[in-house]
Amino acid sequence: MAPEQVMEGMTEVKIPPRDDIAEITRSSRDLPPAHFTYKIENFSLFSSAKIDNVESGDFVVDSYKWRLCLYPDGNKKSKGDGHVSLYLVFSDSNALPFGWEVNVNFRLFIYNQINDKYLTIQYASGRTRRFHGLKTVLGFDHLLPLSIFNDESKGYLIDDRCVFGAEIFVIKPTGKGECLSMVKEPVNSIFTWKIQNFSALDKKSLKSQVFSFGGHKWTLLVYPKGNSTEEGKSLSIFLAMEDSETLPSGRTTYALYMLRVIDQLFGKHFEKEANCHFSNSIKDWGHLNFMPLDDVNALPKGFLVNDTLAVEVQIQGITVAKEFS
């Protein structure tokens, strides 16, 4: 097992390897601890007074009360001799029922006053630890060797002052979830809309009656003379989700579909595929330049019969999301 290393700016200080620190990682960062800072002055007096450990007052994170417990000369009961030992304590002032347990991911800190950085100590790979009635103290017996900590040139203890800290992230399973599935060609997957008196229409856009599939309401949106840059050049067709406002924030419904203009004489339909993640902000999607207006109006082609245009959408696949708890 390779020796553990403490980052000191551009240098590395090696710590002798021990089996019980194999799953601990150390890193350096600029950001101070998010939840609690523990400053200690006249640090040397704690050792000379032969004080075994000191504890901070309670601080609250995620509705639970916590403390920091510091052993200035190391926790000798846990073979922490020659080190500073630091622990996170689940305060006994928490009123919890029998059999309680709290799962957390936490980091402890010690401030380097020369580099203006925080040495961060945590369990490797973001390991989650469990506090319960028989284990209310967790932390690091070998936070930092005293040979490094007491050396003022290393930056951790200057003018007999030092700073520690903690960040605590409580893991609370909510029991809630979401099941996402893809439905291929759902029931009633084809909707056909016949638009009569097509050549006489003077509206810029037309909307079909509402139809349903995949648990949502939809319409077809047609611009007989084209829309935007395709105005006067192309037929524009879109699929629109009429109840998009009912989607929970951040959720989308994906649809893969074929838009089609029916050839009513020869069966040579004109079609284009489209797909979209419909959401609160994206309510319709399709093709501006679906097909040239010259082709639409060319009577021999069979798209416009008795001044009626038949527009169709065929759903090829759609996602369905269901919440569960």
TrEMBL record:
SUPFAM superfamilies: TRAF domain-like. Residues 33-168, 188-315 form the MATH domain. Gene3D superfamilies: Apoptosis, Tumor Necrosis Factor Receptor Associated Protein 2, Chain A (2.60.210.10). Transmembrane segments: none annotated. Pfam families: MATH_2. It comes from the Eukaryota. InterPro entries: MATH/TRAF_dom, TRAF-like. This is MATH domain-containing protein. The lineage of its organism: Eukaryota, Viridiplantae, Streptophyta, Embryophyta, Tracheophyta.
